[in-house]
Amino acid sequence: NAGVMQNPRHLVRRRGQEARLRCSPMKGHSHVYWYRQLPEEGLKFMVYLQKENIIDESGMPKERFSAEFPKEGPSILRIQQVVRGDSAAYFCASSPLAAQETQYFGPGTRLLVL
Amino acid sequence: GESVGLHLPTLSVQEGDNSIINCAYSNSASDYFIWYKQESGKGPQFIIDIRSNMDKRQGQRVTVLLNKTVKHLSLQIAATQPGDSAVYFCAERSTNAGKSTFGDGTTLTVKP
After folding, report:
1. pLDDT of residue B1
2. How far apart (Å, rounded) are the C-alpha atoms in residues B53 and B82?
3. Which pLDDT score is estimated for B5?
4. A interface mutation test: which of B99, B104, B106, B107 has the most A CBs within 10 A?
5. pLDDT tens, B61-103?
6. Which residue among A9, A44, A51, A57 sits deepest, i.e. has the most Cβ atoms within 10 Å of its Cβ?
7. What is the DSSP letter of A25?
8. DSSP code for A22
9. pLDDT tens-digit map of A87-97
10. Of the candidates B46, B96, B102, which has its C-beta nearest A43's C-beta?
């Protein structure tokens, strides 16, 4: 029973490039959450998605960031025109249902912007 | 605004001793609380949770206590082992909200 999968585990981009982070939830889970973690800090909520729907994007920066969770395939967090401040660990979590269920986290993608 | 904070950034204990990690929260609407353990280079790992209709919940070697009056949460680890060394985060959620709000973490170091 595989857990939450994220890829790539490490991603290096130059300023101005695009970063695409992928998350495959646990089997049977239809809710996905993205969090960002800066060094020496806690996780900050970014976005909550169900299949084909964005439920809460209150933590997403207004520009350059977007997320999707299509009917088929993994959830994608996309960062356009990356800047050095985007360097962080990005974690995905999933749950079977939303409000009353535990969120299980993936191993994260560590993004480094040069 | 809502926030979740930890009282101490680091905690060092001797192997075999009990550990207590504290957390304060400010959102009165929060009704679900979770403790996560994060080892270096890994994602947060669920340890234990508690809902607001409870004051205490026990797991294997871990106990979570919730004091809603003072908005305080604690994690107790019995007979701490070297493998318990990690960063521990508390998080809170409100009913029907997918968003979890995390504290900044306490680094637990277990000395052999």
Report:
1. 39
2. 33
3. 58
4. B99
5. 999 999 999 999 999 999 999 999 999 999 998 877 788 999 8
6. A57
7. P
8. E
9. 999 999 999 87
10. B102
Rounded distance between C-alpha atoms, residue B51 and residue B32, angstroms: 5
What Å distances lie between residue A56 and A9, A23, A59, A64, CA to CA? Answer: 25, 17, 8, 17
**What is the token pair recorded at B38?**
């994060």
Predicted local distance difference test score (pLDDT) of residue B3? 54
- What would the DSSP string read from start to end of B77-93? ESS--GGG-EEEEEEEE
B→A interface, C-beta within 8 Å? 4, 32, 34, 36, 42-46, 49, 89, 91, 93, 95-105
- Do residues A76 and A18 make contact, with C-beta atoms less than 8 angstroms apart? no
**Residue B47 near residue B37 (C-beta atoms within 8 A):** yes
